[in-house]
């Protein structure tokens, strides 16, 4: 019986552990070219190469690159069915195919070279395996036997095994300076003293692997053999539980374990010390984290100890044995419900409160769960054990429950007073519990009397009736977290409540009014989890608050639970993962689903620390882990530059092999992609282009960066990735040289100076010569002119009369033109929206409109369509009468786009307006290239917020939020004819209270003025708006107008001015 129980316990533990092993799978959905993976290798750079039945794949941790046969390209791979892969000592990738022979890929030149039957390979049908040894590549084929390729003369030579060159070679391995080959004729062959010797001729060997100075053989029928001490004899290992499934792959990890990939039996873990079967991992359709298929064709351990598993139809799987820090339990493990709300450890047992599954009891010795059915409540929010060993359960719907673990009797307490209890603690034999809506309650266990503390208008009352968390102090008083009125302190001895502010306006307040958890450390400092304000820290000595939020790298600002481990690290559960905060160095390490967490979402109150272990519950069960074992990554990995594009085209040769590059002066648009060679979790990136960037660009999980408009110069691109912890100085560098064009070089400037000086000298000599000649000619001319002057005096009187007549005609025409222009001004004013209409739809707004002339090319436009308000600031080509004529056409185009075509999306309006304007101008017999720059906004209000959509032609949108100016750039094209027109882009923003929006033409920033007569410029305009943004819109308009006139001074206004500002 005892042996039977041990067997049951072993099988139970095995099952539970196998469920907790989390495999990350990649298939076609994730970018793999095909789901049957025949072979896997890792190259010298750390990239993973995967051979499938439909193409070769390269994986850099972010994306798959596919290599396939190109039927019009003899330099591509010869066939898409990849059977075998290896990397030689020079870094070339050897690719064995099904039906196409061999291809050799040179990653430095990004090129393929084919070897097939024309190179004397006996069979180019199926290439089974490769192995490099002593300046040769050994090649195993299915029907062409074993061959060697000599690197020096590039000749392929067949090798006879069993007097046969037509046999199938399944695997090749080099061990102890000897080549071993497994064949279809049975057994293995090894090369000794110029002779091939055969062993185990009756056993079908599928794979060969060396480990711990031993050679292992995996058989077609599940046998496992190990070499003896002389390396040429093999003993069959008797492993209990090993079945007859063929062993197709063997690898060893960093913890002295063997991993066997079987044909139908899943993945097996073997203890490499005593060769016992430790675990079996098989596909479970109910567990998305299980291995994807039980037929395993290939297996690889990468340089960091990660295990890659290729399957038949299930894609490729990955996991890292050394990174299994978080044990995961859920309903598959036996938990009654996956939503976990609370924990309590009692010796070898763990009580677990669930949301819908009642109270569970987990036996840590047997790894088994049971549901305590005598507790009727199904939703257990909190569990507390008092000094008498009685459990007190806070429930939803059943109030407070008293549960005796010895008798199993449960009874409800005060459920008529409070039926929703969130937290419980005990002080001086009195229970204190917080409720939802029923305030704080003190319960005397001896007398069963209770005192209820409710919020009222009195100064000395609790601030809120919903209490989610309680924490007692060293002097037996209470910290109280309410859900709606912030933090309270309760002095039990005198029944006095003290409430704290919650707007974060000063260091004396929390930054959020919804408190979800409170932890009091050994120095009586508070660590407070809030619902939206992140983690608040209260320094008890200074009586000040500080805040740790997503700005400091907290994964989410909703903090459900807070505990402290024995290394003085604060652990918090959030709405998006688990976080460890080091009080010592103030660093943050975040963990998420990819690290083994039950889910990224955790639950209120479900964080518990006891006896070296932390329990964290969420919506998919709970995790158990030892915080000492969860360390930051110590891998000696690096960040690789996997791709670089110059002006949108891929840079060749591959950039990952280069330390520096030289580009031409026109190469001013560069795109980079990075990969931190760590496949075990999400990676964060940062980069900095020295010579262009002042500071690091923190890219979060984005692994690419673009640079535009780079001037010529010498740059150093520094790039770095990390998985967790703080940034260090181990970054990679690419040096980039962009030389200037020849006309901007020093030697060209010198040449120009020499030519200019030579030109001046030549000009001076010729001028002197011409001057002498001219003096002589002038003397003759003077004489002739004297005679002519007399005659001209006679005609001057007649001309005077003619001039006076022309003056009268000119003044008449000027009056007529001025009248026409004034009439045009009235027409243009008529198409502009009135101040009344603008203030009707945008009460807090202004329009600063200053035409340069009587009529203008700038105009502002407004339209109401359905529930959307449309407003624009436009700048048509030119100013004065020409600009005004264009503005009429463009204004009409906007009206038609909205009224006739029913468009409300800014980008669609601009696209249609451009179409209309071009059509109007094409009616002219002469080519018209006039057009319009514009910034167009659409404003809609939903239930909570204003939604702003924007599209622009050359004119940007500025939003000022607090002290920050957010600029959204327009498409670099006008409304009109353009050589490379594209569709306009629409940008959408959810506006926040007090956001102020500005759109404008270029007249204000381009105005000359100031002491030096320079342009006002956009930078000064931004600074001015940031300075006045807090004022009313009318005050802003007056300040802008005054600033413009002051800057312009006596200079002429050079262009029309239109500035629109509004606040919603």
Outline the secondary-structure elements:
Layout: H1 2-20, E1 24-26, E2 37-42, E3 48-52, E4 55-59, E5 64-67, E6 82-87, E7 93-97, E8 102-106, E9 111-115, E10 127-133, E11 136-141, E12 146-150, E13 156-159, E14 169-175, E15 178-183, E16 188-192, E17 195-199, E18 205-211, E19 214-219, E20 224-227, E21 234-236, E22 247-252, E23 257-262, E24 267-271, E25 277-281, E26 296-301, E27 307-311, E28 316-319, E29 327-329, E30 340-346, E31 349-354, E32 359-363, E33 368-371, E34 380-385, E35 391-395, E36 400-403, E37 410-413, E38 421-427, E39 430-435, E40 440-444, E41 450-453, E42 467-472, E43 478-482, E44 487-491, E45 496-499, E46 515-520, E47 526-530, E48 535-539, E49 544-548, E50 559-564, E51 569-574, E52 577-582, E53 588-591, E54 602-610, E55 613-618, E56 621-625, E57 639-646, E58 649-650, E59 660-662, E60 670-676, E61 684-690, E62 697-700, E63 704-707, E64 713-722, E65 732-738, H2 746-831, H3 835-841, E66 845-850, E67 858-865, E68 868-876, H4 880-899, H5 906-921, E69 931-941, E70 946-953, E71 957-961, E72 964-968, E73 975-976, E74 987-990, E75 996-1000, ...
Parallel strand pairs: 59-65
Antiparallel strand pairs: 1-28, 2-3, 3-4, 4-5, 6-7, 7-8, 8-9, 10-11, 11-12, 12-13, 14-15, 15-16, 16-17, 18-19, 19-20, 20-21, 22-23, 23-24, 24-25, 26-27, 27-28, 29-56, 30-31, 31-32, 32-33, 34-35, 35-36, 36-37, 38-39, 39-40, 40-41, 42-43, 43-44, 44-45, 46-47, 47-48, 48-49, 50-51, 51-52, 52-53, ...
Helix pairs in contact: 2-4, 4-5
């Amino acid at each position: 019986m005892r042996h039977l129980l041990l067997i049951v316990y072993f099988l139970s533990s095995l099952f539970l552990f196998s469920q907790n092993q989390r495999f990350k799978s990649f298939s076609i959905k994730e970018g793999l070219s095909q789901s049957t993976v025949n072979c896997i290798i890792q190259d010298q750079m750390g990239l993973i190469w995967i051979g499938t039945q439909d193409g070769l794949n390269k994986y850099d941790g972010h994306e798959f690159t596919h290599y396939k046969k190109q039927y019009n390209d003899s330099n591509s791979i010869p066939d898409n069915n990849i059977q075998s892969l290896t990397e030689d000592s020079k870094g070339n990738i050897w690719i064995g195919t099904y039906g196409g022979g061999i291809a050799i890929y040179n990653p430095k030149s990004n090129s393929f070279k084919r070897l097939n039957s024309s190179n004397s390979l006996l069979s180019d049908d199926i290439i089974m395996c490769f192995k490099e040894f002593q300046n040769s590549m050994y090649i195993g084929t299915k029907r062409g036997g074993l061959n060697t390729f000599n690197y020096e003369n590039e000749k392929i030579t067949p090798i006879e095994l069993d007097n046969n060159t037509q046999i199938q070679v399944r695997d090749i391995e080099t061990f102890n300076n000897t080549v071993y080959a497994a064949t279809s004729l049975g057994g293995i062959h090894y090369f000794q003293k110029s002779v091939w010797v055969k062993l185990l001729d009756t056993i079908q060997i599928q794979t060969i692997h060396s480990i711990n100075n031993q050679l292992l053989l995996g058989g077609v029928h599940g046998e496992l053999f190990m070499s003896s001490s002389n390396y040429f004899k093999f003993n069959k290992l008797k492993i209990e539980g090993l079945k007859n499934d063929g062993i197709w792959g063997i690898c060893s990890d960093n913890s002295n374990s063997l991993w066997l990939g079987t044909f139908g039996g899943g993945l097996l873990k073997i203890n490499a010390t005593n060769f016992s079967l430790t675990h079996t991992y098989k596909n479970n359709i109910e567990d998305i984290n299980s291995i994807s298929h039980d037929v395993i064709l290939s297996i690889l351990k990468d340089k960091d100890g990660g295990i890659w598993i290729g399957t038949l139809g299930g894609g490729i799987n990955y996991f890292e044995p050394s990174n299994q820090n978080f044990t995961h339990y859920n309903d598959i493990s036996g938990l009654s419900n996956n939503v976990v709300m609370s924990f309590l450890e009692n010796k070898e047992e763990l009580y677990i409160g669930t949301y819908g599954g009642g109270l569970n009891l987990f036996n840590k010795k047997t790894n088994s769960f049971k549901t305590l059915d005598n507790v009727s409540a199904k939703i257990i929010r909190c569990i507390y054990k008092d000094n008498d060993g009685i459990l007190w359960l806070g429930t939803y719907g059943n109030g407070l429950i008293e549960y005796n673990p010895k008798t199993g009797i449960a009874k409800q307490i005060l459920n008529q007073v409070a039926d929703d209890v969130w937290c419980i603690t005990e002080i001086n034999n009195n229970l204190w519990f917080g409720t939802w809506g029923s305030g704080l309650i003190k319960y005397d266990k001896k007398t069963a009397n209770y005192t209820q503390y409710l919020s009222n208008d009195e100064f000395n009352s609790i601030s809120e009736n919903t209490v989610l968390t309680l924490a007692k102090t060293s002097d037996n008083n209470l910290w109280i977290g309410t859900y709606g009125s912030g933090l309270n302190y309760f002095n039990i001895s005198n029944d006095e409540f003290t409430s704290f502010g919650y707007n974060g306006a000063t260091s004396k307040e929390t930054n959020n009014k919804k408190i979800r958890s409170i932890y009091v450390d050994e120095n009586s400092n508070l660590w407070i989890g809030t619902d939206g304000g992140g983690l608040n820290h209260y320094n008890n000595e200074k009586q000040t608050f500080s805040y740790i939020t997503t700005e400091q790298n907290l994964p989410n600002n909703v903090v459900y639970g807070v505990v402290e481990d024995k290394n003085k690290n604060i652990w918090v559960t959030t709405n998006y993962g688990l976080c460890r905060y080091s009080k010592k160095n103030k660093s943050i390490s975040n963990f998420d689903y990819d690290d083994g967490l039950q889910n990224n979402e955790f639950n209120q109150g479900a964080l518990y620390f006891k006896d070296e272990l932390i329990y964290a519950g969420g919506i998919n069960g709970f995790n158990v882990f030892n915080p000492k074992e969860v360390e930051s990554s110590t891998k000696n990995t690096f960040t690789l530059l996997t791709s670089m594009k110059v002006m949108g085209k891929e840079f060749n040769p591959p950039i990952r092999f280069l330390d520096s590059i030289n580009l031409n002066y026109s190469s001013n648009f560069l795109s980079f992609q990075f990969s931190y060679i760590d496949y075990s979790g999400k990676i964060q990136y940062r980069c900095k282009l020295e010579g262009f960037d002042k500071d690091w660009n923190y890219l979060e999980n984005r692994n690419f960066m673009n640079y535009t408009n780079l001037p010529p110069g010498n740059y150093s691109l520094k790039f770095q990735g990390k998985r967790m912890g703080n940034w260090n100085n181990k970054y990679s560098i690419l040096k980039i040289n962009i030389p200037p064009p020849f006309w901007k070089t020093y030697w060209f400037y010198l040449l120009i100076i020499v030519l200019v000086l030579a030109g001046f000298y030549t000009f001076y000599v010729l001028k002197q010569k011409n001057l002498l000649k001219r003096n002589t000619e002038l003397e003759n001319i003077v004489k002739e002119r004297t005679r002519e002057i007399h005659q001209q005096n006679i005609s001057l009187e007649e001309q005077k009369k003619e001039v006076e007549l022309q003056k009268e005609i000119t003044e008449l025409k000027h009056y007529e033109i001025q009248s026409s222009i004034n009439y045009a001004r009235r027409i243009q004013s008529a198409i502009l929206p009135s101040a009344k209409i603008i203030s009707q739809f945008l009460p807090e707004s202004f329009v600063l409109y200053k035409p340069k002339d009587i009529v203008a090319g700038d105009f502002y436009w407004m339209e109401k369509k359905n529930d959307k308000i449309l407003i624009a600031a436009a700048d048509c080509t030119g100013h004065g009468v020409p600009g005004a004529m264009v503005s009429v056409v463009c204004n009409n185009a906007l009206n038609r786009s909205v009224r006739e075509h029913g468009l409300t999306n800014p980008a669609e309006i601009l696209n249609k307006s451009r179409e209309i304007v071009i059509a109007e101008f094409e009616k002219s017999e002469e080519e018209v290239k006039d057009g319009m720059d514009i910034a167009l906004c659409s404003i809609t209000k939903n239930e909570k917020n204003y939604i702003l959509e924007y599209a622009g032609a050359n004119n940007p949108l500025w939003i000022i939020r607090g002290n920050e100016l957010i600029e959204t750039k327009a498409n670099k094209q006008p409304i009109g004819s353009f050589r490379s027109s594209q569709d306009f882009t629409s940008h959408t923003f959810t506006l926040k209270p007090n956001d102020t929006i500005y759109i404008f033409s270029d007249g204000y920033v381009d105005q000359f003025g100031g002491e030096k007569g320079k342009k006002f410029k956009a930078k000064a305009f931004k600074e001015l708006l940031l300075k006045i943004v807090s004022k009313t819109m009318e005050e802003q308009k007056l300040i802008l107008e005054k600033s413009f006139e002051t800057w312009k001074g006596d200079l002429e206004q050079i262009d029309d001015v239109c500035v629109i500002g509004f606040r919603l």
